[in-house]
Amino acid sequence: MTSDSYLTGGNRPFYLHFEFEHEGLDCAVHDLQRCLHDTKKSIAKAQLSRRLTQLRDLMTKHFHEEEEGCFDEICAQHPHMCPATRQMELSHKLLLSQLDGLARDLEVHSVTEDWKEEFDAFAVEMNKHKEEEQAFVRRGLDLPEE
C-alpha cells in the first residue's frame, strides 16, 4: 500500500476489519441454521422473518463497505483487478436476491423442510463467496495467503 492511500492504517488492519465483518455474517447465518434445525424448539415465522431482515441489513452494510472501500482500494493499487471487483459486486447482488427470494417465500408459506434446504443452499453460497472474496482481497491488498 502506498503512503498516500486513504486507508491510513495500511492494508492489514483494513483486512482484519473486513474479516471481522465476515465472521459476524457467518455467525448470523449459522445461528439461523441452528434455529431452523433444532428439533426441540421451532422458530416462529415472524421471528424468522425479522431475523432474515436483520441479516439482509448486515449484508447490505458489509457489501457497501467492500464495494465503496475495499474494492476501490484494490482498483487503485491494481487497476487490472477492477473487472474482477465488478464480478464480486455481481455476486453481492445475487446473494441479496437469493435472500430476498427466501423472505418472499416465507411470507407466502410456512417454514417447510424445502424452505430449510433452500436456506442451507444460501448458506453454502455465502460461504463459497466469502472464501473466494477473501483470497481475492488478500491478492488485491498484497497480503500473504493464510
Automatic annotation (TrEMBL):
Organism the protein comes from: Bremerella volcania
Protein name in the entry: Hemerythrin-like domain-containing protein
InterPro entries documented for this protein: Hemerythrin-like (IPR012312)
Chain ranges of the Hemerythrin-like domain: 18-134
